[in-house]
Please model this.
Amino acid sequence: MKNKFRYLLLGMFSIFSFLISSAATIEKDLTYNKYTLKDTYKYGKITREFQWDKISRYLDRLDSFQGENIRFGTLKNYKNINGLPPVARQIAMEKYSDGSRPSVKDKFGNRRSQGIPLYIEGQMDRPERYAPDGSLISISSRDLENYKVKVEDIDGEWIVPARYVKEIQANNFPRVVVVDRKNQNIATLEKVGEVWKVRSMNPASTGLDRPPYQLPTPLGVFVVQGKKYKMEYLKDGSHTEIDGYAPYASRFSGGGYIHGVPVNLPRTEMIEYSPTLGTTPRSHMCVRNATSHAKYVYEWAETNKGLVIVIE
Model:
């Protein structure tokens, strides 16, 4: 009995050691020092935190993903520019009280609009599911019509029509922005040698789940798609009326940007900070930051090289 207990302990220790050894090493070395949050902090009666254990696992998985693959790309369908994908094998309809056209989702909750169809090899009649625009992929092979890819945050290997894939030159991704929807915070990390250095720890506000105009910030691993010094946005329900702008906007998925405090017209000058940052989700899908932190991300995370990881 004692021997069995000893072997059980040894087995548990081996598993624990494996988990520890497989986690990425994270150290603090801030290069942006405004509005810095502590590792754990209070929001009202709620204790919030930076989920370093979860972030470490994501970074370790990212390291493995980079080590196992040599060709990388991103999935592209911003504003359905490459075509509204076919209806997935299993779907759900989301209806809106304002009479807007219902939204189609796959069984995993991914939206058809601006989505990318993922097919099982040999079953090209209908996509199995969708992946979000901007997702990081590795490329296994391609023919004239399709790519075979792995999506970093989705298990399995998938067939994707070539028009939805953009190959990128980067073969490693040392700068990562991590957005935490649960805790409403944002951290930037940079890999230096074998260590991930924390460069900033700040409050942020993510997307509110109140469609059709406000959508939750999508979960996943995304490539920075592009940037706008001032990203103009429209008034809800309008296709033409500009309501204001968001400064230092870095797009990562669909209409989702990391940006500074929104400026509603008729005001035109930038706003540095809002007391609503880090409180509750309230954006239209984007990730709001202090404007100086948005500028930091804007200059620090390069297009097609920087990554944005959104966690819960």
